[in-house]
């Protein structure tokens, strides 16, 4: 399957199973996945695992499932953590805003200074909004 088709499969419970396997970074069995996500039955976990396996995102090794292909569109994986990439942009924009306000503040305040600070503040708000949206939506 293509990356686009694989991404379309990653929704709801299927996405949660994929994220669980990404976070644990170790092979998991059907019952372990069922317990970790509080699924109603092992067959429900099996259904979603089969979808992921058919998409080529998982593979089966000695009865357990492991990640075969990593799709991280909006996140960066650092060890076991999935961090929205917008968080880095937010931190950078906040640092620029602080530099503008603290270090580059002119003696006589003028319109250009306020324009630059306002533009940077808008970027900070946009990046923080996008970070929160990805984190709350829990999308890749």
CATH topology descriptor of the largest domain: Arc Repressor Mutant, subunit A
Helix content: 55-70%
Structural class: mainly alpha
Assign an overall shape: rod-shaped
CATH class of the largest domain: Mainly Alpha
CATH architecture of the largest domain: Orthogonal Bundle
What is the ordering of alpha helices and beta strands?
A: HHHHEEEEHH
**Which residues sit in consecutive blocks of at least 5 with pLDDT less than 50?**
none
Using the CA coordinates, give the radius of gyration: 21 Å
Mean pLDDT: 85
Total number of helical segments?
6
Distance between the termini: 18 Å
Largest sheet: 2 strands, antiparallel
Total E-strand runs? 4
The CATH superfamily of the largest domain is Winged helix-like DNA-binding domain superfamily/Winged helix DNA-binding domain
Write down the domain tally: 2
Strand content: 5-15%
């Amino acid at each position: 399957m293509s990356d686009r088709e694989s991404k379309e499969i990653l929704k709801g419970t299927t996405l949660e199973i994929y994220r669980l396997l990404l976070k644990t970074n170790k092979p998991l069995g059907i019952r372990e996945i069922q317990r970790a996500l509080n699924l109603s039955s092992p067959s429900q976990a099996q259904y979603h695992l089969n979808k992921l396996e058919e998409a080529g995102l998982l593979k089966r090794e000695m009865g357990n499932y492991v990640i075969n292909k990593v799709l991280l569109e909006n996140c960066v994986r650092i060890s076991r953590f999935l961090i929205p990439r917008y968080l880095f942009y937010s931190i950078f924009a906040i640092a620029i805003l602080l530099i503008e306000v603290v270090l580059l503040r002119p003696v006589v305040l003028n319109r250009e200074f306020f324009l630059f600070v306002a533009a940077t503040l808008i970027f900070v708000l946009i990046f923080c909004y996008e970070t929160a949206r990805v984190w709350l939506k829990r999308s890749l």
